[in-house]
Amino acid sequence: MNRSLVRHWIALLLLPLLAACGTTPSSQHYLLTAPEAPLPQGMTPSIGVGPITVPEYLNRDSLVKRIDSNSLAISSTERWAEPLEDGILRVVALNLAGLLQTENVRLYPWHPKRAPDYGVKLRLVEMDSNAERVVLVAEWFVYRVADDSTVARRLSKQSRPLPATTQNGNEVAAAYSELLYALSQEVAASIAEAQGNPAAVSAPST
């Protein structure tokens, strides 16, 4: 068999592989977001946000969806545009800045000589979606940084229904963003109460 014939057969064998590569769906990337809020007008209280921890099964760039109690589906095309811990940290910080109307929000780790008045730690227990709803379960801890005294510590569960028509990544990311805002409202309320001003939490703009 001459070389030209061999090259011909190799090319024929590679055609299906090339065609398969050409039809691979492109990845979609999603962000968690904070709702629009009035621009912060003050510098107090000063808030430090972090660290944020997530379960190991969520520690990936792919969106994870729950099939049943013990089964998960890891998407090959729907991905977070940033590490999930970083996205949660960013959004919670923005939420608290708007809710408490303070520009003085710092991300963990902060400089020890410029410690904030209050620290906020967040540990996600669950962050799941299925065909019907999204669920967020998180333990949050607010403390006074100066003396490490506890302000509030709670285990919070938030959930939202998903549209019945489809469960795409954009809807899941938007629903998670709503749950993180509801969680941030609880945290902001505990800080406002510790300051003796429980009515200080602002609503987002409409």
TrEMBL record:
Occurrences of domain ABC-type transport auxiliary lipoprotein component (ranges): 30-188
Domain of life of the source: Bacteria
Keywords annotated in UniProt: Signal
Chloroplast is among the record's keywords: no
UniProt KW Signal keyword: yes
Cleaved signal peptide residues: 1-19
Gene3D superfamilies: ABC-type transport auxiliary lipoprotein component
Pfam family, one: ABC_trans_aux
UniProt name for this protein: ABC-type transport auxiliary lipoprotein component domain-containing protein
